[in-house]
Amino acid sequence: MKLCSLKEIDKIYRVSSWYPYLGFTLFGFLLRSNPNLELLKYIILDIFLLSYAFSLNDYYDLCIKKKYFFPPLILSLIFLLFLNPLQISLSYLFLLIVTLYSANPIRLKSKPFLSSFCNGFGFLILFFIGYQRWDLGLLFGMLLFFLEMVAQFIHETVHLKEDKRHKIITTAVFFGRYTIKILCYTFLLITFMICLYLFHIGMVNVLFLFITAFFIFYFIADIYFHKINKKLRKRYRVFGIITGMFYIFLLFYS
What we know:
By secondary structure, this protein is mainly α. It has two domains: about 10-135, no CATH class; about 135-254. The protein is built from twelve helices and no strands. The radius of gyration is 18 Å and the shape is globular. The N and C termini lie far apart (about 50 Å).
């Protein structure tokens, strides 16, 4: 059997897209405890889950063969034997959402609103796998959710013409570019309000608030003055990773 090259593995499982989502789990983990070897378990689980999600999506987009998404699915299910009940429940929820998002006949990817929500909430589950609490983590989860929703709106807008051609009715296709920009502004401002409230109740410090505010108002301006395209999507991703690294640094040394 021919082995895949590293480049092919990256393309099939989108390894280069994992970093923000692995960061979600790390962020949640650092919110609740000091770093230890238990984190490695969550990262391995994330790798299996993300590999399944991305390869299944590409299979139904007719880009790869069926054989590629089965191994990460099987590995995910086997790995669940070593997890606690909450992690198992969250993992099954993630698998369900990404399957309904990509697979026929339901294929939520082609349903406006639901397509965006699946990505915004689906990847947020990785944060709760790390944090494992719904009460105190709800506000931080909402902050990540709205930031991820903006990322999804940008992603859908970049693929708007291609999705139209394939008759995939995403939120961006349904609303159009102008309304998507309005949604981006709105969700970014909601994120700022959440962060402001977290600062008010003492859950984050002034540096956390400043970093978040800089990110939010930079991209409100960036989206307003520029067309949403691949370059803007890349800026949002890179700046998002950098901002996330600041979050992790602040939590690690707090």
